[in-house]
Amino acid sequence: MADKDNKVPENVPGEYYVDDECIACRLCTSDAPDNFKMTDNNSTAYVYKQPENDSEIAACEAALDNCPVEAIGNNG
Ligand code: SF4
Fold it and tell me: Does the reported pTM lie above 0.85?
């Protein structure tokens, strides 16, 4: 389970976030490209925009479910 106390600093404020357990597999940026992206050096994913509609929420929930190391949270 992701820990909101360990968010990577690049996340925008809000419900969804990536924490420091991310292994940069890029699955979330594929599942939810409107909300997750990689840093310029590809060291971690982060939330660059919180979901704004049902489609984006569903994509973010898929990313959360599919993250192999449970680094995505929705309780931020
Ligand atoms: S799916 Fe999880 S481990 Fe993979 S890039 Fe996204 S947050 Fe990181």
Answer: yes
> What range does the domain containing 40 cover?
4-73
Mean pLDDT taken over the chain: 98
CATH number of the structural domain spanning residue 28:
3.30.70.20
Task: Give CA torsion, residues 42, 47, 53, 55, to 10 deg.
Answer: 40
Ligand 1 lined by 32 (C-beta under 6 Å): no
Q: How many domains is the chain built from?
A: 1
4-15: pLDDT as tens digits: 999 999 999 999
Say how far apart CA 24 and CA 6 lie, in whole Å. 16
Q: For residue 14, how far is its CA from the centre of ligand 1 (angstroms)?
A: 18
Query: Which atom of ligand 1 is the closest one to the Cα of 63?
Result: 1
